[in-house]
Predict the structure.
Amino acid sequence: MNKTKQIPSYHQEKIALQENLATMIPKESLNVFSTDANLLAMEITNPLKVSVGDKAPLFELPNALGNAVSLQKHLEKGPVVITFYRGNWCPYCNLVLNSYQRILPEIKALGANLIAISPQKPDSSLDMKEKHALEFEVLSDDKNGVAKQYTTIIKNALEAVDEAKKLGIDFYDFYDDKSRDIPVPAVFIIDANGTIVFAKSEGGDYSLRVEPQDILDVLAATK
């Protein structure tokens, strides 16, 4: 792996994102979203449903083109990094998937593959993949059937949904149902034997995410 390459810092880029959002979004709207994140941080401190040492629940889900993608078949090629995210409408999801894309060469150099999963319909997954030129699989997990085996599922707050609608973002456009069910973001690394070797979530505050460097450090240590 190229030691001289600058690995993106999600934390630093999040600060820049929040500064940018403050210039684009009314303060009242930002307060609604901030309150939502703070409440979730207090309510959800340990969302993970599986731990290091557990066997990873296997799955097969459609990708952005509607083709079935099997975790087992990916594991036959080597370790797999799985990240669960909320949706295209979430700026922090956009930011973190973009940062993971930028370390994809390092992930692959360490013999692993990356998969991102959300409950969005395939068309929305395709939008996400194209918008950020993502070169890894972006899968659609209808009704969070897979996500609920790995992390906690919550209902996106009506206040946040309504506030986003005022800003021109219709939350429901991204999904096939009106449940408002979304996963608490989390990252898992599964070795080629199907065992979870890394399981981490920063909790309910969706502005906090697993750092790219954390992923690379675990892959390097388990190679």
